[in-house]
Every structure is written in structure tokens, then in C-alpha cells.
Structure prediction request, 394 residues.
Amino acid sequence: MSATTTIVLTLLSGLLVIYHHLGYPLILRWLQRKHGHNNDGLANKPPLDTDDLPSISLLIPAYNEAQWIADKIHNLAILNYPQDRLNIIIACDGCSDDTVAIARQTASQIECQHLNIEVRNFPANRGKVAVINEVIGELTGELVALSDVSALISIDALLLAAHYFRDPKVGVLSPHYQLLNPGSAGELSYWNYQSRMKASEAALGATLGAHGAFYVLRRRLFTPLAADTINDDFILPMNIVMQGFRAEYAADIHALELEQANDNLDWQRRQRLGAGNCQQLLRLKKLLLPRYRGVAFAFISGKGLRVLMPFCMLISLLGSIYLAQQYVLFIPIALGQVLLYQLALLQVVLKPKRQIPLMASLAYLVRGHCASLMGTLRYIAGLERGRWQSVKPD
Prediction:
């Protein structure tokens, strides 16, 4: 490889890293201010009459969720939505613990007896996607809501969702996602950043995907997912967008994650997300076409470059170190990158009790890209099976 080619690849990779982490968020914020849209939810919209509320089927896939299932059902029991327009299905996918028994016992309690709830026990574990495909295919509600067992949803979530779907162009809706007990300062910072990005993308009409903690879609727009789908909560919503409908972000609807991720759980989740990001980039490549406008811009700048980031970071680092031996210009570039990665590594290895937020965020970011790299390589090598596995905290 010629010196010129090495210089171009190194600089291009470095610029893409800077653009993905700094340039793209700043452009989004600028466009959000320029358009003057703050995603204020339903503040100025008149309420719906009870008779106009759509029927909703709430599907909760579950695999070995004995720890959280009772809390989830108690949460469902206080939702503000007419019971004659809401039916709930807890689909237990070959659970080997007491999830089914606890779910049925909790549903029979006095405070939960008003719920129109069905606990289905599938004897064999087939994976979340198989459950979603089978159950949604049998539902009759106008809207389908999907939710994780370990996530609680705000009491008015379904009522607000019904209001958003008054717009016939809205095909799928995702809420604000937050953690009850973040595993680290870096994780908290990451999800706060993701929430800001969601709000900015929504201001452009370019909301990408949803979060499995809770999201809502029009049932008639559902298309069965491929059996090996990894990030179902991204591919399913974006399939709806490709049908010509809009994905909306509702900052006034909240999903609260109860489960705290330890390092092992977080690593496996982010590795799986990395594999899923690679898969969805390949399967949803039509979203890169200019006709999708803001969605195309957000998809390539956010999700697309996220797949390439670990490779860009490696090329930029190794290329800078190599070129620093020949060009003075690359000495500070190489030293700067080495310093940043050393600081991140120290945070990961030492795990200081008193964390500096900026350093914790840097460590979480770098560790996440490492996990994403492993996930991408696993997907390319055909090692990612595309079905869930329960990974519990220690």
C-alpha cells in the first residue's frame, strides 16, 4: 500500500469517527433548532373521547423472567386505559423457571383480576421472533404494543399512544427509555445521550427503530420477521417506515428499565446489538435511498456508521502510529488517540468508585465499540444465532 493511500485511509477513518460522535449530533441539534420543532407531545391536542379509543393488544414475550413478572403484571393493572379495549398476552417461550406459575398466580390476585390477560405457555423455547410472528398473526386489536417484562411503563402510556395514532401517517411509536439503576455512570451518560439523539431525530421526522422495553404499532402494518432477526425492535419498525408510514418518538411516554446490567450482561447485550446493527444495515439498505430523506441521513450517519466505527477507529489508530514514524503531523494525532484509549482502559480495569463522568463515558463508549466489533465479526462468521438467551446479573 502506498504512503498516499495510507494517509487517505487514516485521515478518512479519523474524520468519520469525529463525524459520527461529534459532527452528526451537532448537525442534528442545529437542524432541530432551525426547524423549531421540540417534540412537545400532545400538549395542545384535544383529548379523545372514550368511544374513539382504538383497541390495543399488548404482547409481552417472556423467557425465564421469574424475577420481574409479578412487578410487570402489577404495573399493567394500573394502566389508564379502558379494559374492554385492552387485551394482554404474556407469551412464555419455553421457560425453565417459575415464570408461568408466578404470572398466573399474580394475574389471579384481586388487584389484577380486572385485566383481560392470557398467559400462554409455549413448551419449547423457539426465540422471541418466533413468538412475535405467531402471536401478532392471531391478534385483532387495531394497535399492537410490545413490551419487555423487566420494563415498567407509565400509567398513561397507552392513552397517550392512542392520541399519537390519530395521525394516519404514524405507523409506529417509541417512548422515552430510562434506567432505574444504571450499572455505571458511563451507562447512564450513554442512555441520556441516546434520548437526546432520539428527540433530535424525531424533530426531523427521522425516528429510527424503537426500544423493546415498549413500543406500539398498527397491527395491519406488521409483516412477519425473518426467523434469524436479531434486533427485532429496529427491523420491525423500519419495515413499517419502508411502507410509507412514520416512526414517531413520544418523549411524554416513559419506559423504566428495572434490570441492572453488570459488566457481563452489558457486554453480551452490546455484542448482540453490534451483530444486529450489521444485519439491519444489510437488510434495510433501501433506507439509504435519497427518497427517504431525513431517515436516510439518520440511518447512514447513526446506525450505518456505528457498524463501521470499530474498524474506522482501528484504522485511524494504527495508521497514525505507522505514519508518525515518517510525518511529524501524525505524531500528535497518534499520541492523542493512544492517550484516550489508555484513559478508557484504566477506567475499565481499575473501576474507580468515584468516577469522573467524562472518563466514565469515554470508557463505556470504547468498551461498547469493542463489543460491537466482536458482534459484527460473529455475525459475518455466522456465529450469531438470532435468538434470545437469558443472561442474568450476578
Q: What stands out?
A: The CA atoms of residues 181 and 260 lie 6 Å apart.
